[in-house]
Amino acid sequence: MNHLAHLLLSEPDPDAVVGNLMGDFVRGPVEQLESPALRRGVRLHRRIDSYADAHPVMRRSRRRLSRPYRRYAPILLDVFYDHLLTRHWNRYVSIPLRQFSARVYLLLERRRHLMPERMQRYVWYMREYDTLYAYRRRAGIERTLSGLSRRMRRGNPLAESAGELFRLQGDLEADFLEFFPQLRAFVTGVTGTPPHQFGRVVLRPPG
Fold it and tell me: What does pTM read for this prediction?
Protein backbone atom coordinates (compact mmCIF):
# COMPACT_ATOMS: atom_id res chain seq x y z
CA MET A 1 0.00 0.00 0.00
CA ASN A 2 1.17 3.53 -0.69
CA HIS A 3 1.11 6.68 1.43
CA LEU A 4 -2.61 7.40 1.53
CA ALA A 5 -3.49 3.95 2.84
CA HIS A 6 -0.64 4.00 5.37
CA LEU A 7 -1.76 7.37 6.73
CA LEU A 8 -5.38 6.28 6.93
CA LEU A 9 -4.54 3.07 8.76
CA SER A 10 -2.29 4.74 11.31
CA GLU A 11 -2.95 4.71 15.01
CA PRO A 12 -4.77 7.88 16.17
CA ASP A 13 -1.62 9.48 17.57
CA PRO A 14 0.19 12.29 15.71
CA ASP A 15 3.64 10.74 16.14
CA ALA A 16 2.31 7.37 14.98
CA VAL A 17 0.96 9.02 11.82
CA VAL A 18 4.43 10.43 11.13
CA GLY A 19 5.98 7.05 11.85
CA ASN A 20 3.63 5.25 9.51
CA LEU A 21 4.77 7.51 6.67
CA MET A 22 8.40 7.38 7.86
CA GLY A 23 8.50 3.65 7.16
CA ASP A 24 9.52 4.45 3.58
CA PHE A 25 12.43 6.63 4.72
CA VAL A 26 14.19 4.68 7.48
CA ARG A 27 15.84 1.29 7.45
CA GLY A 28 16.96 -1.06 10.17
CA PRO A 29 16.26 -0.83 13.91
CA VAL A 30 13.93 1.93 15.11
CA GLU A 31 15.15 2.26 18.69
CA GLN A 32 16.92 5.54 17.90
CA LEU A 33 13.63 7.24 16.96
CA GLU A 34 12.42 9.87 19.37
CA SER A 35 9.09 8.58 20.71
CA PRO A 36 7.39 5.20 21.27
CA ALA A 37 4.50 6.23 18.99
CA LEU A 38 6.93 7.09 16.21
CA ARG A 39 8.54 3.67 16.57
CA ARG A 40 5.14 1.96 16.56
CA GLY A 41 4.24 3.82 13.39
CA VAL A 42 7.32 2.61 11.53
CA ARG A 43 6.77 -0.94 12.74
CA LEU A 44 3.13 -0.83 11.65
CA HIS A 45 4.18 0.44 8.21
CA ARG A 46 6.49 -2.54 7.85
CA ARG A 47 3.83 -5.00 9.00
CA ILE A 48 1.31 -3.58 6.54
CA ASP A 49 3.83 -3.92 3.71
CA SER A 50 4.67 -7.50 4.69
CA TYR A 51 0.99 -8.42 4.96
CA ALA A 52 0.21 -6.90 1.56
CA ASP A 53 3.22 -8.48 -0.16
CA ALA A 54 2.21 -11.98 0.99
CA HIS A 55 -1.55 -11.64 0.48
CA PRO A 56 -3.07 -13.88 -2.22
CA VAL A 57 -5.26 -11.08 -3.58
CA MET A 58 -2.22 -8.86 -4.10
CA ARG A 59 -0.45 -11.74 -5.79
CA ARG A 60 -3.44 -12.11 -8.10
CA SER A 61 -3.28 -8.41 -8.91
CA ARG A 62 0.40 -8.73 -9.79
CA ARG A 63 -0.31 -11.60 -12.18
CA ARG A 64 -2.84 -9.42 -14.03
CA LEU A 65 -0.06 -7.10 -15.23
CA SER A 66 1.51 -7.87 -18.58
CA ARG A 67 5.14 -8.99 -18.57
CA PRO A 68 6.91 -5.68 -19.18
CA TYR A 69 5.30 -4.30 -16.01
CA ARG A 70 5.21 -7.34 -13.77
CA ARG A 71 8.73 -6.79 -12.46
CA TYR A 72 7.54 -3.44 -11.09
CA ALA A 73 4.20 -4.74 -9.84
CA PRO A 74 4.72 -3.92 -6.14
CA ILE A 75 5.37 -0.25 -6.95
CA LEU A 76 2.59 0.03 -9.52
CA LEU A 77 -0.02 -1.63 -7.34
CA ASP A 78 0.92 0.39 -4.27
CA VAL A 79 0.17 3.56 -6.21
CA PHE A 80 -2.91 2.28 -7.99
CA TYR A 81 -4.47 0.83 -4.86
CA ASP A 82 -4.27 4.33 -3.38
CA HIS A 83 -6.18 5.56 -6.43
CA LEU A 84 -8.79 2.87 -5.82
CA LEU A 85 -8.99 3.90 -2.17
CA THR A 86 -9.91 7.41 -3.26
CA ARG A 87 -12.65 5.99 -5.50
CA HIS A 88 -14.21 4.22 -2.53
CA TRP A 89 -13.21 6.71 0.14
CA ASN A 90 -16.71 7.15 1.56
CA ARG A 91 -16.93 3.44 2.36
CA TYR A 92 -14.15 3.78 4.90
CA VAL A 93 -13.85 7.39 6.05
CA SER A 94 -16.44 9.81 7.40
CA ILE A 95 -14.77 13.04 6.24
CA PRO A 96 -14.00 14.17 2.69
CA LEU A 97 -10.62 13.29 1.22
CA ARG A 98 -9.82 16.98 0.74
CA GLN A 99 -10.24 17.62 4.47
CA PHE A 100 -8.31 14.50 5.44
CA SER A 101 -5.42 15.48 3.17
CA ALA A 102 -5.24 19.08 4.39
CA ARG A 103 -5.11 18.08 8.04
CA VAL A 104 -2.52 15.40 7.39
CA TYR A 105 -0.28 17.95 5.66
CA LEU A 106 -0.63 20.29 8.64
CA LEU A 107 0.17 17.50 11.09
CA LEU A 108 3.26 16.51 9.12
CA GLU A 109 4.45 20.09 8.81
CA ARG A 110 4.24 20.54 12.59
CA ARG A 111 6.40 17.46 13.11
CA ARG A 112 9.07 18.08 10.48
CA HIS A 113 11.71 18.10 13.22
CA LEU A 114 11.10 14.37 13.73
CA MET A 115 11.84 13.50 10.10
CA PRO A 116 15.05 12.66 8.28
CA GLU A 117 16.01 15.22 5.65
CA ARG A 118 14.88 13.13 2.70
CA MET A 119 11.45 12.72 4.25
CA GLN A 120 11.21 16.47 4.92
CA ARG A 121 11.77 17.12 1.23
CA TYR A 122 9.14 14.58 0.28
CA VAL A 123 6.58 16.02 2.70
CA TRP A 124 7.15 19.44 1.14
CA TYR A 125 6.48 17.87 -2.27
CA MET A 126 3.34 16.13 -0.98
CA ARG A 127 1.93 19.37 0.31
CA GLU A 128 3.02 21.52 -2.65
CA TYR A 129 1.37 19.20 -5.19
CA ASP A 130 -1.40 17.89 -2.91
CA THR A 131 -0.44 14.36 -3.84
CA LEU A 132 -2.87 12.60 -1.49
CA TYR A 133 -5.85 14.31 -3.09
CA ALA A 134 -4.32 14.02 -6.56
CA TYR A 135 -4.51 10.22 -6.39
CA ARG A 136 -8.16 10.68 -7.42
CA ARG A 137 -7.22 11.55 -10.99
CA ARG A 138 -5.30 9.77 -13.72
CA ALA A 139 -3.05 12.82 -14.06
CA GLY A 140 -2.07 12.49 -10.40
CA ILE A 141 -1.21 8.82 -10.87
CA GLU A 142 0.82 9.62 -13.98
CA ARG A 143 2.78 12.35 -12.15
CA THR A 144 3.47 10.01 -9.23
CA LEU A 145 4.70 7.23 -11.49
CA SER A 146 6.85 9.61 -13.53
CA GLY A 147 8.46 10.87 -10.34
CA LEU A 148 9.17 7.32 -9.18
CA SER A 149 10.63 6.50 -12.60
CA ARG A 150 13.07 9.42 -12.42
CA ARG A 151 14.27 8.41 -8.96
CA MET A 152 15.21 4.90 -10.08
CA ARG A 153 18.77 4.39 -11.27
CA ARG A 154 18.02 2.09 -14.18
CA GLY A 155 15.69 2.52 -17.12
CA ASN A 156 12.16 1.42 -16.35
CA PRO A 157 8.63 1.62 -17.79
CA LEU A 158 6.99 3.31 -14.81
CA ALA A 159 6.39 6.63 -16.55
CA GLU A 160 4.37 4.83 -19.25
CA SER A 161 2.57 2.38 -16.98
CA ALA A 162 -0.62 4.31 -16.17
CA GLY A 163 -2.27 3.01 -19.35
CA GLU A 164 -1.68 -0.57 -18.23
CA LEU A 165 -3.16 0.08 -14.81
CA PHE A 166 -6.25 1.84 -16.10
CA ARG A 167 -6.73 -0.87 -18.71
CA LEU A 168 -7.01 -3.33 -15.82
CA GLN A 169 -9.01 -1.02 -13.57
CA GLY A 170 -12.13 -3.20 -13.35
CA ASP A 171 -10.21 -6.31 -12.29
CA LEU A 172 -7.90 -4.41 -9.95
CA GLU A 173 -10.85 -2.63 -8.37
CA ALA A 174 -12.49 -5.98 -7.60
CA ASP A 175 -9.22 -7.13 -6.04
CA PHE A 176 -8.96 -3.97 -3.96
CA LEU A 177 -12.51 -4.27 -2.62
CA GLU A 178 -11.75 -7.82 -1.52
CA PHE A 179 -8.36 -6.97 -0.05
CA PHE A 180 -8.83 -3.67 1.79
CA PRO A 181 -11.38 -4.84 4.41
CA GLN A 182 -9.04 -7.69 5.24
CA LEU A 183 -6.15 -5.28 5.59
CA ARG A 184 -8.19 -3.09 7.95
CA ALA A 185 -9.06 -6.12 10.06
CA PHE A 186 -5.37 -7.07 10.18
CA VAL A 187 -4.37 -3.59 11.33
CA THR A 188 -7.10 -3.64 13.98
CA GLY A 189 -5.60 -6.86 15.32
CA VAL A 190 -2.13 -5.33 15.42
CA THR A 191 -3.04 -1.97 16.98
CA GLY A 192 -6.24 -2.67 18.87
CA THR A 193 -7.71 0.36 17.06
CA PRO A 194 -11.17 -0.44 15.70
CA PRO A 195 -11.86 0.63 12.13
CA HIS A 196 -14.06 3.60 13.00
CA GLN A 197 -11.08 5.20 14.76
CA PHE A 198 -8.76 5.09 11.76
CA GLY A 199 -7.89 8.63 10.81
CA ARG A 200 -9.32 10.04 14.04
CA VAL A 201 -6.30 12.28 14.53
CA VAL A 202 -7.26 14.30 11.46
CA LEU A 203 -10.82 14.71 12.65
CA ARG A 204 -9.67 16.99 15.43
CA PRO A 205 -9.47 20.68 14.58
CA PRO A 206 -5.90 21.93 14.16
CA GLY A 207 -4.38 23.42 17.28
Answer: 0.91
Most distant CA pair in the chain: distance in Å?
49
On the CB side of 136, how many CA atoms lie within 13 Å of its CA?
11
How would you label 36-48 residue by residue, b for 16+ Cβ within 10 Å and e otherwise? ebbbbbbbbbeeb
Count of beta carbons in the 10 Å neighbourhood of residue 157: 14
Find out whether 26 and 7 touch, Cβ atoms under 8 Å: no
What are 72-122's pLDDT values in tens digits? 999 999 999 999 999 999 888 888 999 899 989 999 999 999 999 999 999
C-alpha distances out from residue 115 to 8, 34, 123, Å: 19, 10, 9
